[in-house]
User: Which sequence fits this backbone?
């Protein structure tokens, strides 16, 4: 597939781009800084500028596409990860502006260019736990895509707004538009660097609902979305199968989730951030666990 990928230079994006390249896709990365990766094409653009987004959506990916003399090829899909990645990086209103206007521009331009598959990055923060003022527990566990999304911060608000925007575009167009509620992204080197602290103090991971997603498995998730057609508008939690700390699931419930309704029986180390929907509808099958890299002892 010929894919336009926004935000491919970021932490999550670069691993997803690498995964797609390994599977033979052509990727044009649209970002504020280029991604230095063999095989990827780059374009510098500001997603909050509708003209720039519209231009790259109708752009050659590289010089080789000039050779056939048949004009600019069309993109088969758009993957939209570009955003201010969290709160406390910019002013709150700037975070909200960039993320909402940028997403509107990307989806709008994609559909006007005839693209029928758009995948966009939403966030675990939509559930209101991650960036709450004080402790906020889920309304039930495990947290699935039906859980209420009522966040308090500008970043998560922008992601909820983007989901509403995407749903509206899908209803008008009939295209496939899938939103990924991505949990805390972990790169391979971060297991040895960060997880010893998580194993020593599980409470560090409370705001992430004790979950995580390996960056390579996130790449697989994007690929599964690209290969699955006909779902219309869907939202998917993206997480690995296990949680990111040493205690068992029941021990975590006893310490952190006393009184929180439990909707389903859970395995010994099963994530509280349910990925069951992605497994059922997309065939998502996470391959990586922190337990493969460090000991839980």
Assistant:
């Amino acid at each position: 597939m010929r894919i336009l990928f926004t935000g491919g230079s970021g932490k999550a994006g670069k691993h997803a781009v690498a995964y797609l390249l390994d599977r033979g896709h052509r990727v044009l990365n649209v970002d504020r800084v280029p991604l230095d990766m063999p095989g990827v094409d780059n374009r510098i653009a500001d997603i909050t500028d509708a003209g720039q987004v519209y231009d790259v959506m109708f752009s050659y990916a590289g010089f080789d596409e000039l050779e056939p003399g048949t004009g600019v090829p069309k993109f088969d899909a758009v993957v939209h990860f570009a955003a201010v990645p969290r709160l406390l990086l910019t002013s709150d209103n700037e975070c909200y502006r960039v993320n909402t206007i940028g997403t509107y521009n990307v989806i709008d331009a994609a559909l006007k260019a005839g693209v029928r598959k758009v995948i966009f990055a939403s966030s675990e923060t939509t559930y209101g736990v991650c960036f709450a003022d004080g402790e906020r527990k889920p309304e039930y566990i495990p947290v699935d895509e039906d859980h209420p999304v009522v966040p308090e911060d500008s970043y998560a608000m922008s992601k909820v707004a983007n989901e509403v925007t995407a749903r509206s575009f899908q209803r008008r167009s009939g295209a496939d538009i899938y939103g990924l509620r991505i949990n805390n992204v972990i790169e391979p080197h971060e297991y040895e660097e960060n997880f010893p602290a998580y194993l020593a103090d599980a409470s560090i991971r409370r705001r992430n609902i004790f979950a995580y997603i390996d960056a390579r498995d996130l790449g697989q998730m994007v690929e599964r979305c690209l290969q699955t057609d006909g779902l219309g508008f869907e939202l998917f939690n993206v997480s690995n199968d296990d949680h990111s700390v040493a205690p068992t699931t029941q021990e975590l419930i006893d310490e952190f989730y006393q009184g929180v309704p439990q909707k389903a029986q859970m395995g010994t180390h099963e994530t509280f951030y349910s990925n069951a929907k992605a497994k059922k509808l997309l065939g998502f099958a996470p391959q990586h666990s922190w337990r493969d890299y460090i000991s839980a002892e």
Q: What stands out?
A: The chain has a mean pLDDT of 97. The radius of gyration is 19 Å.
